[in-house]
């Protein structure tokens, strides 16, 4: 049983997701208002606190970036699989949260990207077993 290389389109996509996540985390940390100036809860006390929702979003994006960059830099099948499992769970939770909140575009985005990452995970798993 030999590990075949992960398809290049998956590698490129995961690098894109990792880099965008790192950029989002940096923007949120430095100036959360720049990203969420039209957010309904922006006026609430502590909305942009790193202990509040902005901090959680920043931490999630930092985790995504760190796990993705580590997995891709080491070209490790198990780590790439872990990264894809992480993305499936996070995107499914985003879709569920949007479904509860009635945010239709994010419902499609969350569940759509969860499905895409699940397909990628199946492809990577099949290549590991072949």
Q: What is the subunit arrangement here? A: single chain
Outline the biggest β-sheet: none
**Rg result:** 16 Å
- Quote the beta fraction: under 5%
Order of helices and strands: HHHHH
Distance between the termini: 6 Å
Number of alpha- plus pi-helical segments: 5
Mean pLDDT: 84
- Give the low-confidence spans: none
Shape: globular
Kindly state the number of beta strands: 0
**Approximately how much helix is present in the residues?**
over 70%
How would you describe this structure to a colleague?
This protein is an all-alpha fold. It has helices at 8-30, 32-35, 53-73, 77-101, 104-129. Helix 4 packs antiparallel against helix 5. It is globular and about 50 Å long. The mean pLDDT is 84.
Any key phrases for this structure?
76% helix, 130 residues, mainly alpha, 5 helices
Strand and helix map with partners:
Layout: H1 8-30, H2 32-35, H3 53-73, H4 77-101, H5 104-129
Give a short synopsis of this structure.
By secondary structure, the chain is mostly helical. Helix content is 76%, strand content 0%. It is built from five helices and no strands.
